[in-house]
Amino acid sequence: ALVVLLLIYLVSTFSFNSQENRKDPPGPKPLPLLGNLLQLDLGRPYNTLLEFSKKYGPVFTVYLGPKKVVVLAGYKTVKEALVKYAEEFGDRDQLQIVRDFNKGHGVLWSNGDSWKEMRRFALTNLRDFGMGKKACEDKIIEECNFLIEVFKKFKGEAFDTTQPMNCAVSNIICSMVYGSRFEYDDPEFTSLVDRTNRNIQLAGSSSMQLYNLFPWFCKWIANRKEFHKLADANKKQNLKLFSRLKETLNPHMCRGFVDAFLVRKQHAEESGITNSHFHDENLIATVVNLFAAGTDTTATTLRWALLLMAKYPKTQDQVQEELSRVLGSRQVQVEDRKNLPFTDAVIHETQRLANIVPMALPHRTSQDVTFQGHFIKKGTTVYPLLTSVLYDESEWERPHSFYPAHFLDKDGKFVKRDAFMPFSAGRRVCLGESLARMELFIFFTTLLQHFRFSPPPGVSEDELDLTPRRRVPTLLQHFRFSPPPGVSEDELDLTPRVG
Ligand code: HEM
């Protein structure tokens, strides 16, 4: 029976594919069932997609297993689709693992009215609780000082910056969401941070990618169970934190996003609104989304920035010279950014080159759309290939190198570049963009005011490898630099030189 079912499936997939192909944007010929999987570099699929775009043009079709995906490539095409056709390309396509788990709640993976309401509410409230404002700046500065103390404790010894960096960045989300930060050695906090981090890694593992494409076949082999276990544990822990907040809730003085949400929920219940989106599932899913989307991204970018400083010491010299000339030893403020054009250019160039979300998150067409002469059916999965924007050869002078001058004019003034789109664009543009930009600026400048970053002993700058680690998720390119030959991961040393 299994063989018969498989045959039916193969035949139907194949005929479905060839029927659809008549209208689809062009693309490489798919194999039945496997689609174009065998042609993709599964570790870094965005690289193969970039190559495909050179052959098939800026709008093309690939089959990830049986799943048809339309890929948008190049600055002009991605911008046009996400901004001019914002509505048509603005739905989110849910991965199977997400469908299993959050049932369309929250803000990252949801659609329709619930998404609209959650996005609006999250944006307004994160703003109210500091995002883009002075209060937020103060929180980041305070957190940065805690982080510096952790770095100093190592007294020049080698250590891995991942955990303290994740804690610092998570604490910013904690302040926004719960209204308070946690100590870095608080086990409740570290387990929340570690589980979130591990789940992002799991979401990107090859077996999970296979599960998303072939859920019926791969549910036994994927590490889905571990993912669910960790996600459930995080959910429980968040619920515990919510109940503590509930006990001391004062509707006239909200401490953070959770308080504001609980007040709205209470209000809806008292008014007898039965179809309100302010229910427990949306609260928990949105909070989990904010941690997942707002921690690894910012922390990873910061670690990229430190790595690039270690690799390019002359650039580090220039940043430190500018910081000391403009600020002396005083604490940096967001408003200093305009007087620090070189530093600002280095941060932008780090984000461009690090390219940490190379395929954005999967979008889906909300209606039939004819785009650049191609017909794309409602409900089609769409990948805006951000790599192709950040490395667009017609937009960047040296797309594959670290070149801060991309963001400087001939007089050394900072220039904005339209093709700088690490946060994507349009309806689904990153909700935390302004918070992330503020964090990157304050953390990076403050760390560089206090420390110098260099390669581990015995490793030259040239040997520092900027190749992103394989096993790259199709969601987030989880950064690690591979150690040079003869050096184990444990020996890699990002030791800050104190002073
Ligand atoms: C979505 C990048 C930090 C919250 C996204 C997307 C990208 C992105 C590329 C997908 C956009 C799309 O689908 O077209 C980044 C980068 C960050 C960062 C590069 C840091 C360097 C943050 C932070 C937060 C956050 C700090 C939390 C406050 C979100 C949310 C979404 C999102 C909630 C989903 C938006 C929606 O679907 O409506 N981000 N992000 N991000 N980001 Fe960020």
From TrEMBL:
Membrane-spanning intervals of the chain: 1-16
GO molecular function terms listed in the Swiss-Prot or TrEMBL record: heme binding; iron ion binding; oxidoreductase activity, acting on paired donors, with incorporation or reduction of molecular oxygen, reduced flavin or flavoprotein as one donor, and incorporation of one atom of oxygen
Binding positions (heme): 430
GO cellular component assignments: endoplasmic reticulum membrane
Keyword match rRNA-binding: no
Subcellular compartments: Endoplasmic reticulum membrane; Microsome membrane
Keyword set, alphabetical order: Endoplasmic reticulum, Heme, Iron, Membrane, Metal-binding, Microsome, Monooxygenase, Oxidoreductase, Transmembrane, Transmembrane helix
GO aspect biological process, one term: aflatoxin metabolic process
Cofactor requirements of the protein: heme
Keyword set includes Nucleotide-binding: no
InterPro entries tied to this protein: Cyt_P450, Cyt_P450_CS, Cyt_P450_E_grp-I, Cyt_P450_E_grp-I_CYP2D-like, Cyt_P450_sf, Cytochrome_P450_fam2
Residue stretches in coiled coil: none
Major location (coarse): endoplasmic reticulum
Family recorded in the similarity comment: Belongs to the cytochrome P450 family.
Record protein name field: Cytochrome P450 2K1-like
Species, as recorded: Lates calcarifer (Barramundi)
